[in-house]
Amino acid sequence: MIQTWAIFVDAYRELNSKKMFWLVLILSAFFVLGFAAVGVKQHTLIFLGYQSGIPISSEPAEFYKFCFNLLGVHFWLTWAAMILALVSTAGIFPDFMAGGSIDLFLSKPIGRLRLFTTKYLAGLLFVALQVGLFCTASFFVIGFRGGTWEPGLFLAIPIVLCIFSYLYCIMVLVGVLTRSTIASILLTVLFWFLLFILTSAESGLLMFRIAGDRRSTVLERQIHDADERIATLQARPDETGARLRQYEARRTALQRDLAETQRTAKPINLIHRIVFQVKTVLPKTADTLKLLDRALSQVAQLPPVPEQSEPVDPLSDQRNVQPGDPEVMREYLQAEQGRSVAWVLGTSLAFEAVIVAWAAWRFCRRDF
Amino acid sequence: MGLLGNSNGVVHFTVDNLHSMNDPPSEHAIDLRQVTKVYRGRIHALQGIEMRVRRGEVFGLLGPNGAGKSTLVKIMMTVIRPTRADGTVLGRPVGHKPTLARVGYLPENHRYPRYLTGRKTLEFFAALAKVDRRTRKRRAEQMLEVIGMREAADRSINGYSKGMMQRIGLGQALMNDPDLIVLDEPTDGVDPAGRRDIRNVLARLREQGKTVFLNSHLLSELELICDHVAILVAGRVARQGTMDQLTLAKQRYEVELSTGAAPLRTGVLEALPECFNGQASQATVSAIAPLPLPGMAPVLPAALPRTLDKGALPTGQWIELEGSVLRLGTTEAADVQPVLDALRRTGLTIRRVQQVRPSLEDLFLETISAPAAPADGFPIAPPPGVR
């Protein structure tokens, strides 16, 4: 315990000595102060007590929570502060493993695995401290200014810490393998970029897949309606045949469309399945962040369910189903929110565990 | 034993560390057997090192660059994993982590966290060695005095000179009141006064029964303080033993004679017929002449053929005559007297009589200049008392 505590205290001293740590802390303070400076009064945005004239439809508490989530967490903590945190912590393992430094640690009565684990956890201290302070300050701002005390804000600490740790494990692995700070930063940022590309690709493919499925469903329903109409017309003795031929022609066109839609959907579905499987084994930074959205907005912000319309005449010219349509968006959001916390965090943390185990194994086995 | 007072620069020790009571009984602080390290399956850094360091002695490890000294030290300190290492350190198998709580280590080219002060550095590494808070605060205070760093104790080590860093390094190695202290180039970058201080600290540690294992290039430093030395060449122990053991074969008396009108060689052979028995042989003197370092061209021919008469004293020791110098392979002055008497009787003039003991540097240079060792290694002197 003496040794573990000493390493944590040392990690704090190390952070304390870094200008970047204080820079991020000062920027966070400015962020929170700016946050406190704006408010909502009578559905109008006020800044430092002055009415801005900008109308705000939501209540103050909702407005602050929205600001905290969108600007504080999505922009500041998981983007700008994350980059600064990566830069600040990139040198921890390469410096630790430098010749003349590592000898001093390994020659002490502390096992290599414990040394690695303690140092790894100490590296997470940077983000834990930064996010902790930011959330605490935001909690009080929302409490005093918005009039609602929202302990759910503190969920941002483990969530942002998780997101950082997904990237930090890569940085540590590269640091252990190469003992280079620059290589650690560059490869981690590259990995982060690849995750971003993969997530964007999966989202896009999911949207196209849903749109395709929906279009197929609509076409199948129209074909079914056309079949019914044709059957009805055929049963009528007064039917001249002109309308019947129109419906039959329409049904043929719909069947052709359906076949075309299904043909196009096949490769999209296949690619989406592959991308989704790749995504499953990789850390999910965006999905993890969305867990906070779910927690902060009690009711999922889904587009309203379209009212069930009367069956339309298959001959009428129906609008094609597009990826951006409200019903597609709704289904897309439902699909995203349907991904369980266990899947999002479990698979991401499993990836992290594998990477950390690899780095720890290498650290324990190598000669210095 | 615990390190306590220091107000007047004198180190005192008290019994406040009971680690040693748990030691398995062993005569040796370090008892290495078959220590082997092979890198990538082809680079043989250490080839079956056998080395024993008795408790309470100062042991010097020397060898040319690349001999494997640092590798050996790092294996003992668990920084490098051996390919094979039998034997013990403080009675426990090599690599036994808890034992390191009783070992102090100063690595070569050490790097301490730049954001710490001298005092915090001592306390931090003491904490890693499992020294409790109160004890490390107390010891840090004392240690700063011992290593002469009290003035700069609360300054960031970022501004320390190399000598100051070395002092802090020595201090941190002693903070856990170790039974065994392993120092890799402890006087590197330290000025002469600082070296003397470090030597004094080491001498006091020896007085207190601590075992000190020194790895240094400064042969004169080692010679001043070491009880035992080992010379490593190409991953093998080329020589090992006390200074006396290692130099015994080379210790001698030299008698320098004046060349008068009479031929000197004839005079000596006539004066000591029972020694030379009329034999004279021409040989090289490579064992005595300075030899070039490996890879360097000799400035002078290393072994010019010169007349060298070899013989034996009545007591059995060797005797040889080279030029005007008569060498007698004995350390006893009594063995020399009959020879001097005989020379004087013949009318030869004695200019100088001197007892010669080769320095560690002579020994080192001779060892590393020797041709490649056979597979079973160089001669290893047996431990004291075993002949």
Would you summarize the structure shown here?
The complex is a heterodimer of chains A (about 375) and B (about 375). By secondary structure, chain A is mainly α.
Question: Can you give a write-up of this model?
Answer:
The complex is a heterodimer of chains A (368) and B (387). Chain A is mainly alpha-helical. Helices cover 75% and strands 4% of the residues of chain A. Chain A is built from 13 helices and 3 strands, in the order H-H-E-E-E-H-H-H-H-H-H-H-H-H-H-H. In chain A, helix 2 packs antiparallel against helix 3, helix 3 (60-89) runs antiparallel to helix 11 and helix 8 packs antiparallel against helix 11. Chain B is α+β, with helices and mostly antiparallel strands and 387 residues long. Helices cover 28% and strands 26% of the residues of chain B. Chain B is built from 11 helices and 18 strands. Chain B has helices at 69-76, 118-128, 133-146, 162-174, 192-207, 219-225, 243-248, 264-271, 273-276, 333-345, 360-369; strands at residues 2-3, 13-14, 28-39, 43-54, 58-62, 84-89, 92-93, 103-106, 180-184, 211-215, 228-233, 236-242, 252-258, 281-283, 306-312, 318-322, 325-328, 349-356. In chain B, helix 2 (118-128) runs parallel beside helix 4 and helix 3 packs across helix 4 (162-174). The longest helix of chain B has 16 residues, at 192-207. At the A-B interface, helix 1 and helix 5 of A face helix 2 of B.
